[in-house]
TrEMBL record:
Function summary: Allows the formation of correctly charged Gln-tRNA(Gln) through the transamidation of misacylated Glu-tRNA(Gln) in organisms which lack glutaminyl-tRNA synthetase. The reaction takes place in the presence of glutamine and ATP through an activated gamma-phospho-Glu-tRNA(Gln).
GO molecular function, one term: glutaminyl-tRNA synthase (glutamine-hydrolyzing) activity
Coiled coil in keyword set: no
UniProt name for this protein: Glutamyl-tRNA(Gln) amidotransferase subunit A
E.C. numbers: 6.3.5.7
Domain of life: Bacteria
Domain (Amidase): residue spans on this chain: 1-445
Natural source organism: Myceligenerans indicum
PROSITE patterns named in the record: AMIDASES
Top EC class, one word: ligase
Reaction(s) catalysed (UniProt annotation): L-glutamyl-tRNA(Gln) + L-glutamine + ATP + H2O = L-glutaminyl-tRNA(Gln) + L-glutamate + ADP + phosphate + H(+)
InterPro entries membership: Amidase (IPR000120), Amidase_CS (IPR020556), Amidase_dom (IPR023631), AS_sf (IPR036928), GatA (IPR004412)
Keyword Nucleotide-binding in annotation: yes
Family: Belongs to the amidase family. GatA subfamily.
Lineage: Bacteria, Bacillati, Actinomycetota, Actinomycetes, Micrococcales
Length: 454
């Protein structure tokens, strides 16, 4: 049914870069056989899933939305893909994204825009717009995204889906094509909070192949979602982050947010205001740290090892000139912009002024979180300041595009988990997201509160 749905609507949406119909049907048949044989299967066995194209999948094309990886077939699976396969979830295919996960609209994909199923003239968010659109349009019940500065949560908000970024280290990064290694986390994109918790439990937990993977077991996430769904939040302290609301937030977004705070109060939560003064600088710090790490991570795309290789059109064929020709042709403008920005920020004369200062701000953001979590069990804000914008609206203005992540970025800098849950429709008839942040390793709390709001 999902493959039929993809055939029916994906011509309009372009959520998928590759559909792996045969493989998906084979897995489904295998799960049926195991079920008939009386095998004990997990709760998501047989439920199809779509995977963001930045996650490597053995034998299936993986481009990260870039021309530079066109035609590359990974020889191995990411750890999270191994776990998905072992649990019997048919993989429907790979989803569209901004090139190397750089963007908030999926307009930076080298393979065309993904459209928002709510309004085909609007962006589905980014960088994981393909995964969010696929789930919102019922092409897939589950999807995987990655979130470096909001790329799971913001697409969730603007498509009316649930998008969860786990605690940094909670889900293995082995087999993710790295953007910024100290910020990247993979996580679930779903239609319900319980689905997200179940998928998080499936893909999460320790992996010796990722040196930043948390060694202890995950908290009980699905149980927390069930508890929240029962509607009891008595005694829970909810902190509204002063710096993540008000000016710059669309009226309908603020109105829906205020209504959900009332709902939380009605369920017994105590709503308090908290201040995180350094969040004001989080975006600036992110746009130094992220490009710095990305410029280093992307150095491996040199025309020698993976995918595209372009020979210089004239002159001698040296390794350096092949690299320049390949990267000049294979990378899009946004990727080039960030590689240049990151290289500059890391260069000897500027290191302290830019990268060094940004790292200090990162520490201040972490301290703000620690202080806020002394006063509240979870922190909340609108996920994004606006609903889905129109194609082209912010494409020529990188700063305006970057500002869409103002509420999601602090969590990545601190490594804390966050989820965006649907929060009704704004006055323009488009979906709004409600963001819940929890302390590191307390991902269960965000699912509890998220499920209570459903
Ligand atoms: N939109 C942000 C950026 O462009 C976040 C991207 C992400 O989370 N991968 O960097």
């Amino acid at each position: 049914a999902h493959l039929d749905r993809i055939a029916e609507v994906d011509g309009d949406l372009n959520a998928f870069l590759h559909v792996s119909a045969e493989e998906a049907l084979a897995t489904a048949a295998d799960v049926d056989a195991r079920r008939s044989a009386g095998d004990e299967l997990g709760p998501l066995a047989g439920v199809p899933i779509a995977i963001k194209d930045v996650v490597v999948t053995k034998g299936l094309p993986t481009t990260a939305g870039s021309k530079i990886l066109e035609g590359w077939i990974p020889p191995y699976d990411a750890t999270l893909v191994e776990r998905i396969k072992a649990a019997g979830l048919p993989i429907l295919g790979k989803t569209n994204m901004d090139e190397f996960a750089m963007g908030s609209s999926t307009e930076h994909s080298a393979y065309g825009n993904t459209r928002n199923p709510w309004d085909l003239d609007r962006i589905p968010g980014g960088s994981g717009g393909g995964s969010a659109a696929a789930v919102a349009a019922f092409e897939a019940p589950l999807a995987i995204g990655t979130d470096t500065g909001g790329s799971i949560r913001q697409p969730g908000a603007v498509t009316g889906t649930v998008g969860a970024k786990p605690t940094y280290g909670g889900v293995s990064r082995y087999g993710l094509i790295a953007m910024a290694s100290s910020l990247d986390q993979a996580g679930p994109v779903t239609r319900t909070v319980l689905d997200a918790a179940l998928l998080h439990e499936l893909i999460g937990g320790h992996d010796p192949r990722d040196s930043t993977s948390i060694p202890e077991a995950l908290p009980r996430l699905a149980d927390a979602a069930r508890l929240g769904a029962a509607g009891d939040l008595k005694g829970l302290r909810v902190g509204v982050v002063k710096e993540l609301s008000g000016e710059g937030y669309q009226e309908g977004v603020s109105a829906r947010f205020a209504e959900s705070l009332d709902t939380l109060r009605a369920l017994g939560a105590e709503v308090v205001e908290v201040s995180c003064p350094h969040f004001t600088y989080a975006l600036d710090a992110y746009y130094l740290i992220m490009p710095a790490e990305a410029s280093s991570n992307l150095a491996k795309f040199d025309g020698m090892r993976f995918g595209l290789r372009v020979q210089p059109s004239e002159g001698p064929v040296t390794a350096e000139r092949v690299m320049a020709a390949t990267r000049g042709t294979g990378f899009g403008d946004e990727v080039k912009r960030r590689v240049i920005l990151g290289t500059y920020a890391l260069s000897a004369g500027y290191y302290d002024a830019y990268y060094g200062s940004a790292q200090k701000v990162r520490t201040l953001v972490q301290r703000d979180f620690a202080a806020a979590f002394d006063q509240a069990d979870v922190l909340v804000s609108p996920t994004a300041p606006t609903t889905a914008f129109k194609f082209g609206e912010k494409l020529d203005d990188p700063l305006a595009m970057y500002l869409n992540d103002v509420a999601t970025i602090p969590a990545n800098l601190a490594g804390v988990p966050g989820v965006s849950v649907p929060n009704g429709l704004s006055d323009d008839g488009l979906p709004v997201g409600f963001q819940i942040l929890a302390p590191a390793k307390a991902d269960d709390r965000m699912y509890r509160v998220g499920a209570a709001l459903e």
